[in-house]
């Protein structure tokens, strides 16, 4: 029993803890030599203070860290949700119908590499407000992986399964619900995971430009206040939330793999 | 025309596929009658088009020329009255064994029978292949032989006019294969099914068949000889091992495959 715990500690816990330790050490060494960069201890104190009251609301632009995170997540959720509603059915159709595939291929390959932020001015122009423009950027950044992965899943459907469907003479609806959808689900979830990752990546940058309550604008605001501790905390918060989203979706995907 | 005498009818069938090198004629001048309740095996070297012929009867492929009939109706596409047992079982991995079979049962009998009856049919099919205990298991939780049995149960549960089997035991080890062959013989005797089976196993062909259809090598493969297997049923593999008639039939198939249609080493 004790050796097992020991083994778990050495093989599972020690390597990541050591990695984090080395990182913090390097950070504190660099902070020692720098006038402006705060060290780990100073940042930690600031974080404790910050998280002691995460949900205060003083003015529209001065709210607790909890509200900032929540608002960013809300934007990501909305944009991402709309992208899923449009992207997944579109991916299914592109995967199923070669004509549609060839029709959309040049558009998708041309627009996919465009930085999502390049779409921000178009969003501001069309919606004439910052918040929908930020959601629009999330939407456009997260739709591509969902279209592409769903379509790939449909295309990779083994011919055997389709032969089963043909021999049983299943209706189109049954083919979709009993074969196409479950067979494509793992690919779809990969698309969703990639999308959420990109969306969370992009929201910080988008909010820096659009302002309002959100983790991205908070970073920018604290830069203007020259509160470097808060910027470092924000980097950790963005990283940890992104990690949690990713792990959550991996856990979900595991449930649906065969 | 007597339906029972010509239950499945293959008339002047030719099958060619478009390839990059131009059309490839896989089958040519294929003519075959299958009687009702007959067990037919198609045997030949790989690439001789035996699976192609099976897929034509299944309706998964359409012939380039010629016609195929089943019970006096032309075969224009696949359907549950010509159920297929696929070589790699092709069970849907996200469904339990029960649900895999139920999918077919529901399709065939769903319009005329209540859910209770459909469930009962599914359970009976599982019992037929001795897999009642695996009802709630998923395909990845059971062995290869069990998967193949579920595949057979799925096909039989639809009460097909013809049961088509594409090397159903090809991927199994010899012991499991022998066991399933014995089970299949019992099931076919009980259900009086008409069966067309593709195989490359000479012993399997002689053991199971009423007639062995031996195919020549492709391209333009066709039926070379048809061998009547007049061994009494039910057959017992141990008794047959010492039966001169069995060895004579086995010898005839071997002679066809390795002398008349000897294939150069690829």
Describe, in plain words, how this protein is organized in 3D.
The complex is a heterodimer of chains A (258) and B (266). Chain A has helices spanning 2-33, 40-52, 65-96, 98-111, 120-127, 130-155, 159-168, 172-210, 215-224, 228-255; strands at 57-59, 62-63. By secondary structure, chain A is an all-alpha fold. Chain A has a two-stranded antiparallel sheet. Chain B has 266 residues and is an alpha/beta fold. Chain B has 8 helices and 10 strands. A 6-stranded mixed β-sheet of chain B has the order 6-7-8-3-9-10, with helices on both faces. Chain B is globular, with a radius of gyration of 19 Å. Classes of the chains: A mainly alpha (258), B alpha/beta (266). The A-B interface holds A 160-161, 163-164, 166-170, 174, 178-179, 182-183, 258 and B 58, 60, 77-80, 82-84, 86, 88, 90, 92-95, 103-104, 107, 138, 140, 158.
List keywords for this structure.
heterodimer, A: 258 residues, two-stranded antiparallel ribbon, 2 strands, 82% helix, B: 266 residues
